[in-house]
Each structure stands twice: as C-alpha cells, then as structure tokens.
Amino acid sequence: MALNVVIMAAGKGTRMKSTIPKVLHRIAGRSLLDHVVLAAAELGSSRTVVITGHGAAQVEASLEGRGTHFVRQEPQLGTGHAMQQAVPSLDDANETTLVLYGDVPLIGTETARKLVAACAGRQLALLTIELADPSGYGRIVREGSQVRAIVEHKDATPAQRAIRETYTGIMAGPTRLLKRWVMALKNDNAQREYYLTDVVAMAVAEGVPVVAESAASEAEVAGVNSPLQLADLERAYQLAHAHALMEAGVRLADPARLDVRGTLTCGTDVEIDVGCIFEGTVHLADGVRIGAHCVIRDTRIGEGAQVQPFTHMNQAVVGARAEIGPFARLRPGAELGPEVHIGNFVEVKNSTLAAGAKANHLAYLGDATVGERVNYGAGSITANYDGANKHRTVIGNDVHIGSNCVLVAPLNIGDGATIGGGSTINKDAPAGQLTIARSKQMSFAGWKRPKKAPKVT
Ligand code: UD1
Ligand code: MG
Does 51 share its domain with 145? Predict the structure, then answer.
C-alpha cells in the first residue's frame, strides 16, 4: 500500500549544545534524519515530506538527491503547526499518512508497518509505550479500553499524570481526515502550541476508531535530545548489530566493543577482537581474524587472512591467507594477493602486490606493481611523486629489495633482481642481477678519534 510519510525535523535541539542541527547528529555514521528517511523508504513511502526549521538549509542539503519533499516551518509553533505546513504536500492518492520524528532514529520498520496496517486508511493508529517515568510525555487517556484523547504532561490533571501509557509521537492516520483535523487545530493549552495530538479527540468526536499499538522496545521510540541520549542510542544500535552478527556465527570478543558504521558481512568462523570499527561496506571471508583496535573501511578481506591489532584499511582488497599488521596502513587501491605479508609501519597505496610478496617493516609502496614472492626490505620506499605527477614502480617476480632503498619512479626492476641495501635507484634494474647505487665503503687505518681536553678544576 502506497503511503505518505511526514518527518518532523524543525525543532532546535537546545540540549545538544551544538551548532549542528540536531537531526544531523549521527548514529552509526549516518545522520538521525537519514535513519528515518531510510525507514520511510523501506516502508514503501511514495511521498516523504520532511518538515524543516532550525538549520533548514543544512538539513535539506543533507538529503539532496534522495527524493524527499521539504516544507519549512518558521516559527515552530508545535507539532500540529508543523503538520499544517505539510498538508499541501501530502499525496491524496495515498490513503494513509505516517508521522515520524527526525530525532527518533531507530524506529523499527516492523513496528511502523504494524501501525500502518492498523490504520488501514480508515482508523487513527497511535504508537504508545508504557514508561516507568512518563513525565514530560503525552498520556493516553482511555475510557474503558477505548482511547479517548492524548493529554500533554503540562495540561494533565494529577490523575492523568499517574497514567504510564504514553504517546511516542508516532501515528498513522487516514490522509483525508488528518488534513481536515490538522487545519482545525487550536492552541488553547498550557504551552500555546498547536498540538497534533488533539486530532485524537477530534477522531473520537467523529466516531473514527482510534487504536493503540505498543512499541517493541524503548530504543525504537527513544528521541535524541542530548549527547548522552545520542551515545546511549548508538550503543543500543551497535549492540543489536553485534547480536545479529553473533547469531550468524561471528565470534566477537566483546559485543559491547564493536562499531559498525555501514554494512559488515562475514563468512563462517570469523573472529573479531575488541575495539574494531568497520565503515562503509566491508566483507570478511571465511576464517578471517581481526585483531584489536583495527579501523577498516570499504574493504574486502579474503579467506583465512589474519589482521593484527591497530591496522587501518581504506578501500583495499586483501587476499586469502594474507598477514597484515600490527600497525599497518592500507590506503585506497591497495590490492594484495594471497599470502602477502604487510608488517608494522608499512603503508601501501594504489599498489598491487602479487601472491607471497612481503613488506614486513617500515616501508612505503605507492603506485607500485609488485610481483610474486618479492621481499621488500625495511625502510624502503617508492619515490612516486615528483612534485607534480605520480609515477609507477614495477617490480618483477622474486625480486629482493634490500633495506633503506629509494626507488625513484618511473622505474622497472626485472624478475629476480636484487637491489643492495641503501641504494637510490633511478634507472631500470635488469633481471637477475645485483644492482647497487651508493658510495663505496672506505676505512682509514691509523685514524685517531679527537680527544676531549682534560677538565681544569
Ligand atoms: C510530543 C507529543 C507528546 C509525545 C512526545 C513524544 C505533541 C503535542 N506532543 O511532545 O504527546 O509524548 O512528542 O516525544 O505532539 N517539532 C517540529 N516543529 C514544532 C515542534 C516540534 O518539527 O513546532 C518536532 C521536533 O523537532 C521533534 C518532534 O517534533 O522532532 C517532537 O517535538 P517535541 O517538542 O520534542 O515534542 P512535544 O511536542 O513536547
Ligand atoms: Mg515541545
């Protein structure tokens, strides 16, 4: 069933104490609002209307190209007033309109779907939750089992304040009726605001059934108003993610110390130690082990590869059974074949290393093509940049590069060549030969080291 979704995002978020509009703060690397827009899309919304106000231009820019409609609400005179601004943008062909909050990011699509089904284009469906401490929230007032009204905390009588069933702010209603009700709202209440919640009493007065559905968890209806609430929801999100991974067989050293900001897919027998961050799209094949405190973004890691602690990877491909780290850095375009070893303080950028190649310590490989079984010595670097252009270094199979070499690109090093340690190589080195480019070692017989003059006291 096609659907309108209205997302309220005009509020200020004073308690965030931030210059960034509240709904642009992030959970799992995505803005709060983006989570809600994604949920709307998953629900099959054919028209998503975002109500902006505070930081409107910035909020709207953050959703560029996403097909959402925007309406501005200035000033902000309450949720009912916000909804009034959205009325002209609602598509009458959609019988149901769902209202979501841009600062309630983890709304479950299953719950929202239940609410939309309960509305069915004919009834007013409210998402509610029982809270141990309901203060501040709108209370669900019932007569018998029938919902009669929502009363805001500030307008509630002491008896109503004792009610623990609260309104989450999320509702689904018949588009045509909601439009009419919203335009008839008044602001004669304690806060002089237009309350969207007053549509409940209007529905009751017209004999339109009002139904309440309860939320599946507090996290899915929790709003973000402060840095603490933001962090709490981040942890709730990450824990749920960690549990899903473990259910699929991934072994996490500690589900409370994992952060996935994007999509992480794993084969069987994958182990992940504490403190790792995965961003963008990451795939770990069967038997991959990730050591503690790695940051891995947009990377594929092949079967049985081992990644030691404190390794960074960004847009890399790692071959099967490779051994990477600790303290390794793979930058965009690093493509490592099977059984490649990259050790501590080695940086690889825009380079391919064929099967079995090794760079175990303190090295830089940039814009290089490295053959099979190459041994790339400690402290060696490709000088790939002449200040204006990048050049390639091509190293054949079975080459041995000694320690502390500078390979000045463009450069070809033939199969089986050996480069003596400490060489600066700026001409092609032939296959199979030893090439050395450094001054000859000399010793001076009879040379005396200068002596310090004796101290005068
Ligand atoms: C509202 C409900 C209350 C419910 C609570 C749940 C009303 C009158 N009350 O409370 O019953 O328990 O949510 O959190 O609806 N917003 C706008 N424009 C405005 C006012 C608000 O876009 O003029 C947005 C805010 O940015 C926020 C959301 O609407 O995302 C809710 O606003 P907030 O002021 O937090 O809720 P209340 O009105 O206090
Ligand atoms: Mg308010």
Answer: yes
Confidence of residue 169 (pLDDT cuts 50, 70, 90): very high
Asked if 361 is an active-site residue, the reply is: yes
Task: Evaluate whether residue 270 is within a structural domain.
Answer: yes
- Count of H-run helices and E-run strands, the chain: 8, 37
Q: Are the CB atoms for 264 and 284 separated by under 8 Å?
A: yes
Question: Which atom of ligand 1 is the closest one to the Cα of 104?
Answer: 30
Mean pLDDT of 257-265: 98
Of residues 283, 361, 391, 400, which has the active-site annotation? 361
Q: Are residues 343 and 325 in the same domain?
A: yes
Q: Are residues 147 and 279 in the same domain?
A: no
Residue 149 and residue 274 in one domain? no
Angle at the Cα of 322 from the Cα atoms of 316 and 328, rounded to 5 degrees? 60
For residue 1, is pLDDT > 90?
A: no
Distances (CA, A) of 153 to 7, 273, 297, 370: 23, 46, 45, 69
Q: Identify the band that residue 306 occupies on the pLDDT scale cut at 50, 70 and 90.
A: very high
Q: Cite the DSSP H helix spans in 373-449.
A: none
Q: How many domains are there within the chain?
A: 2
User: Which of 6, 79, 160 best tests ligand 1's pocket when mutated (most atoms within 8 Å of CB)?
Assistant: 79
d(CA 90, CA 71): 11
* CATH classification of the domain holding 127: 3.90.550.10
Pick the atom of ligand 1 nearest to 168's CA.
6
